[in-house]
Specification:
The structure is a homodimer of 336-residue chains.
Chain A (H helix, E strand, L loop, with lengths): L3 H8 L3 H8 L7 H14 L5 H8 L4 E5 L11 H16 L3 E5 L10 H8 L3 E4 L7 H7 L5 E4 L7 E5 L1 H14 L5 E5 L4 H16 L9 E3 L5 H13 L6 E3 L3 H13 L9 E3 L16 E3 L2 H17 L8 E4 L2 E3 L9
Parallel strand pairs in A: 1-2, 1-3, 3-4, 4-5, 5-11, 6-7, 6-8, 8-9
Antiparallel strand pairs in A: 10-12
Helix pairs in contact in A: 1-2, 1-3, 5-12, 8-9, 10-11
The structure holds a DNA duplex (30 and 30 nucleotides).
DNA sequence: CTTTATGGCGGAAACGTTTGAGATAATAAA
DNA sequence: TTTATTATCTCAAACGTTTCCGCCATAAAG
């Protein structure tokens, strides 16, 4: 690999001058700067990121912390889309991304230690259990952090507007004439709490009674569980006319439960999802759901994180809320 | 951050000795080694990966090169699963992974230059157009490379056994009594070629005529296109009794086309997919498809790549074929 | 008792950068 | 003419490792 030294000997200047020229310092003449830039390009020079990092304590690397359990993680469309957008934004600012985890390799280390070892400039935490020791360590550490869909004190958070999303769905469903609305919730988490709050609030506003019997505890991303819950709801004496599923993916379980009961969507029972994944619009009937703005969530997370990194003095933390958009499918029937 | 030097002054030995003790060199007594290890642990020492990389020219970082266009990349379940498995295997060997691309950040650089800049120890290439300049540069470079689902001379490749997969599907369908089988292919690529070869071969073996009119050019991961193609097939005077879809995701388009034509699966027309994604088993009827062994593909890619890295002398390149498994759903009807 | 091996350790250079402090020369001000 | 200022560049240290080489004991061999 061609180094600063190679350029310096070729051009008859010192290494320092080359470094300064390439980094745009002002104490090098325009003439030599151009000469050096030209030589660097010709020789195919690229800075050695490790050497630079060693000296500057900046790696231009962003850590991504998430749960790679089956069902969440990379194969989760929401996370994949957020990550993709995060990646694009980060890269345009010159940052690369590295997956951070409890590395079980040669050295056993915690997630936070992993961050330190790799010297990431910042970390984004998403789609994971936020109540673990590993997360706390990172949150309490001295590395810039942005969280997605979870709020910690003194840390910037990007929040998908789950409350508003559910509210819009409730309003839509209510306007279609539904009164008995069931809600199969996702697993206990900040997101689930906010959705539930939105659900109750919107129901109140629409004058719809929230029957506790219709609030079931389900799981995100778990069609089997959702199948069961849906069956339970169907078996009820005064069955709901509409079911809120934990998310689009799970809703497939709900669809099947309904079908297996000899009923159909939306004639006999209406269904709404959440997420707006691609598949939801390939179903028939198309699913009425709430599309989370993953592009904005990801890019905003990257922007905020980079801002924290590049302005270390800012102790100011923000909570940024990202709205989504209701997608009207054909899974909710208009009641007379 | 605590460094070797910190440990050395605390324990009254030289930096060199600490380094050697921690790296398991033999020229340090068992007594001092233990003393130093203990101190290192107490002080919370972790090696500085950049400094180490600078000296050893090994970063313990693996580059992942893929296409992040919409439709492929992270949101593609096949790739996501392969990546996840690759990641797990790599991490257990102490490697982290970094996404490699044409970085458009501060410095404009090609993918290969990006590899050099980040000093990745090796690169895996998957799910991308293998005929681009960017890929050639990497293939012809001096970094260890493993490719997935594409074979280059002198480079190790992991191949999902597409040929066998299609063959098994054809055999299954033939055994169910089908004679007129249509095949909507994916976009022109090595994978598509192999699948077509498998298709033709298996048909011959089963004594089934391959009607060119039933071999349509479609796209992978494109339900809309598949919808159209399926419509065309349905409109034919002597309509096929079974359709091979490009992949499971696309098959949703096929399902909808059939439904929209007032027909149903599998009563009127049978369907098989490819990939074995989670959704395929949530459809009703469940899709008969071929599950690619993404876990093995990913982990094998990592193992091979690491082996190439850690045994630099081996000029030996392999092509490793990974079989999958047919999943029998209910989308193929048994003909009398 | 001298030589030779060996086990344990330290010195120091090197990897490729960045950066503040100095050096030099030219220019401007006094 | 002297002094101050500026522009341009070099020196050298530093970042945290690894590793070759050499040193010094002690032990084994002659």
């Amino acid at each position: 690999m061609v180094s600063l030294k190679d350029i310096s000997v070729r051009c008859g200047v010192s290494v320092a001058t080359v470094s300064k020229a390439l980094n745009g310092h002002k104490d090098v003449s325009e003439a030599t700067r151009e000469r050096l830039l030209k030589a660097a390009k010709e020789m195919g020079y690229f800075p050695n990121s490790q050497a630079r990092a060693l000296k500057t304590n900046r790696t231009l690397n962003l850590g991504v912390m998430f749960s790679d359990d089956a069902g969440s993680g990379l194969t989760h469309e929401f996370f994949a889309k957020v990550l993709n957008s995060f990646k694009t934004e980060a890269e345009s600012a010159g940052y690369d991304i590295t997956f951070i985890n409890k590395n079980v390799g040669r050295q056993k280390m915690s997630t936070y230690e992993h961050c330190k070892y790799r010297n990431v400039d910042g970390v984004v935490i998403a789609c994971t259990d936020f109540t673990t020791q590993d997360v706390y360590e990172v949150i309490n550490g001295d590395i810039p952090v942005v969280t997605i869909d979870h709020i910690f004190d003194c840390r910037t958070a990007i929040m998908s507007n789950n409350e508003k999303g559910i509210e819009e769905l409730v309003n839509y469903v209510a306007d279609m004439g539904h009164k008995r609305i069931a809600y199969i919730q996702g697993n206990k988490s900040a997101v689930a709490d906010r959705r539930l709050a939105g659900f109750c609030k919107a129901c109140m506003n629409k004058g719809i009674e929230v029957d506790p019997a219709l609030l079931l505890a389900g799981d995100y991303h778990n069609p089997e569980k959702t199948y069961e819950m849906t069956k339970e709801l169907i078996a009820m004496s005064d069955r709901p006319t509409c079911i809120f599923m934990p998310d689009d993916y799970s809703s497939m379980g709900g669809f099947n439960a309904i079908k297996d009961s000899g009923l159909s969507v939306p004639e006999d029972i209406s269904v709404v999802g959440y997420d707006g994944i691609a598949y939801s619009q390939l179903l028939s009937p198309k699913l009425t759901t709430y599309l989370q703005d993953t592009a904005t969530i990801g890019s905003e997370a990257a922007k905020q994180l980079i801002s924290l990194i590049e302005n270390p003095q800012t102790t100011f933390t923000e909570v940024i809320t990202v709205d989504g958009r209701l997608i009207e499918g054909a899974s909710v029937k208009k009641l007379v």
